[in-house]
Design brief:
The protein is mainly alpha-helical. The protein has 4 helices and 2 strands. The protein has 2 domains: about 100 residues, no CATH class; about 55 residues. A two-stranded antiparallel ribbon has the order 1-2. Keywords: Membrane, Transmembrane, Transmembrane helix. It holds the Pfam family LRAT.
Length: about 150
């Protein structure tokens, strides 16, 4: 069995789902800390084993997760960015509430924004160079026109 933090389920077409034969889990659950069989936890995905640099002993991890499950402790509602399954697992294992998935996503967005900003600066610099050249031609043309009128 696996104790984990689950996002609220999306309703299926008929509004309910049959419970799992192994653990009784119903996919229309409202979300929170739950206990399911491994099959329901994976939901058709592959198992990924994360290696933590530091980890509490297994009995402490299980006790902490069980305390959340039984309502002795509150982990709060699921939030994709600030309180997701990665935060829950990391907190139970290490005592630190963070999510590598969120940190990786934020880093990728930050890198994308840096690249975008640098590209916009290059475009603006190119436009300024073209604008300067066009402006210089316009000023030179106006000067020649003015010089012709004075003659």
């Amino acid at each position: 069995m696996v104790i984990h933090l689950m996002a609220p389920a999306k309703k299926n077409d008929n509004g309910f789902s049959a419970p799992c034969q192994k653990c009784g889990y119903k996919r229309d659950f409202i979300g929170g800390v739950i206990k399911t069989c491994l099959d329901c936890f994976l939901d058709g995905h592959s198992l990924y084993v994360y290696e933590y640099g530091f980890s509490k002993p297994a009995d402490e991890v299980i006790k902490e997760a069980t305390d959340f499950l039984e309502g002795n402790l509150s982990f709060g509602p699921y939030n994709l960015l600030t309180n997701n399954c990665g935060h829950f697992a990391t907190y139970c294992k290490t005592g630190s509430k963070k999510s590598e998935q969120v940190e990786d996503a934020v880093e990728k967005v930050d890198d994308f924004m840096d690249d975008l900003f640098e590209g916009l600066i290059r475009i603006a610099a190119g436009m300024a160079a073209v604008g300067g050249a066009v402006g210089g031609v316009a000023v030179a043309g106006a000067y020649c026109l003015d010089a012709q009128r004075r003659r």
